[in-house]
């Protein structure tokens, strides 16, 4: 896989291929959040919870096995230590603490993936850690250090155009620039806060049209109506969003109808 070109249009032609990923394994005990098997029939990469925001060992092992049988790439989806808040709350951890927390999660998933006949192919932070690390501050540095120490060959998935991509590349990591199928964008290319209007797009046909335009034209329509340049190699459909399976199916069908090759970015 070639290194990411980062975010922004810059006159560079969008890729003729794209990865389609979803956050999976996010149940816990008797509580089930998503239809993991149905989504695994559609996506090419699975961001699997590692236990700190969701995902008990039995659930994670089952998802890894299902992904292995379908040939779907498994990625680690580490989080802040925030099970109650589903990893969506900022945690003021020190750099050394966060490095250890991320390493712990990567190791846990790697063991379960191996037992299921697959392996961890990339790393994508979850929730508040994803957003905070994108700014490439201390927590971004901690994520990069953890990935580099665990396996410097693993690609790091991060928000297209974010400083974290530059930080990761400077540390010698491969990167994958990511966009979101069902999240609203601001005029600056940032994601709309989940608590604000327009944060989620739930209509399958609308999401599919947005993604096709993003991949083929390199732009996404912001919540205020502006076209924002976004260069992405992977597109995420949130597994916990309303109608996630229908949205994922609509996106994949629309991409294939547009002649876009859908395959894992880590392959």
Compact summary:
The protein is an alpha/beta fold and 267 residues long. It has helices spanning 36-40, 57-70, 95-115, 127-134, 138-150, 163-170, 204-217, 244-257, and strands at residues 17-24, 45-49, 73-77, 120-123, 156-159, 175-180, 219-221, 227-229, 234-237, 261-262.
Which descriptors apply to this entry?
267 residues; alpha/beta; single chain; 10 strands; two-stranded antiparallel sheet; disordered N terminus; TIM Barrel; globular
Layout: helices, strands, pairs:
Blueprint: E1 17-24, H1 36-40, E2 45-49, H2 57-70, E3 73-77, H3 95-115, E4 120-123, H4 127-134, H5 138-150, E5 156-159, H6 163-170, E6 175-180, H7 204-217, E7 219-221, E8 227-229, E9 234-237, H8 244-257, E10 261-262
Parallel strand pairs: 1-2, 1-9, 1-10, 2-3, 3-4, 5-6, 6-9
Antiparallel strand pairs: 7-8
Number of domains: 1
Return the structural class: alpha/beta
Instruction: Report the C-alpha radius of gyration, rounded.
Output: 17 Å
Q: Per the principal axes of the C-alpha atoms, what is the gross shape?
A: globular
- Spans of at least 5 consecutive residues with low confidence: 1-11
N- to C-terminal distance: 7 Å
What CATH architecture do you see? Alpha-Beta Barrel
Global mean pLDDT: 92
Count of runs of 4 or more consecutive helical residues? 8
How would you characterize this protein structure?
This protein is an alpha/beta fold and 267 residues long. The chain has a single domain, classed as Glycoside hydrolase/deacetylase (TIM Barrel), CATH 3.20.20.370. The chain is 36% helix and 16% strand. The protein is built from eight helices and ten strands. The chain has helices spanning 36-40, 57-70, 95-115, 127-134, 138-150, 163-170, 204-217, 244-257, and strands at 17-24, 45-49, 73-77, 120-123, 156-159, 175-180, 219-221, 227-229, 234-237, 261-262. Strands 1, 2, 3, 4, 5, 6, 9 and 10 form an eight-stranded parallel beta sheet that branches. It has a two-stranded antiparallel sheet with strand order 7-8. Helix 3 (95-115) links the parallel strand 3 and strand 4 (120-123). It starts with 16 loop residues before the first strand and ends in a 5-residue tail after the last strand. 52% of the residues are buried.
């Amino acid at each position: 896989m070639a290194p990411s070109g980062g975010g922004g249009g810059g006159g560079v032609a969008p890729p003729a291929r794209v990865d389609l990923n979803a956050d999976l394994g996010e149940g816990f005990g008797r509580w089930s959040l998503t239809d993991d098997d149905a989504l695994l029939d559609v996506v090419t990469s699975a961001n699997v919870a590692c236990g700190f925001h969701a995902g008990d060992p039995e659930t994670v092992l089952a998802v890894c096995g299902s992904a292995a049988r379908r040939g779907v790439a498994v990625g680690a989806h580490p989080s802040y230590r925030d099970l109650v808040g589903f990893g969506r709350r900022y945690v003021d951890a020190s750099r050394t603490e966060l490095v250890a927390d991320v390493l712990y999660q990567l190791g846990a998933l790697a063991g379960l993936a191996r037992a299921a006949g697959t392996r961890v192919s990339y790393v994508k932070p979850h929730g508040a850690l994803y957003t905070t690390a994108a700014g490439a501050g201390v927590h971004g540095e901690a994520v990069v250090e953890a990935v580099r120490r665990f396996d410097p060959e693993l690609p790091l998935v991060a928000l297209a155009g974010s400083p974290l991509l530059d930080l990761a590349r400077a540390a010698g990591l491969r990167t994958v620039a990511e966009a979101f199928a069902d999240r609203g964008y601001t005029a600056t290319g940032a994601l709309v806060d989940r608590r604000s209007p327009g944060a989620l797009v739930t209509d399958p046909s609308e999401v599919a049209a947005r993604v096709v335009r993003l991949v083929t034209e390199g732009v996404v329509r912001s919540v205020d109506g502006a076209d924002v340049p976004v260069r992405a190699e992977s597109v995420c459909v949130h597994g916990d969003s309303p109608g996630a399976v229908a949205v994922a199916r609509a996106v994949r069908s629309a991409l294939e109808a547009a002649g876009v090759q859908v395959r894992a970015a880590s392959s």
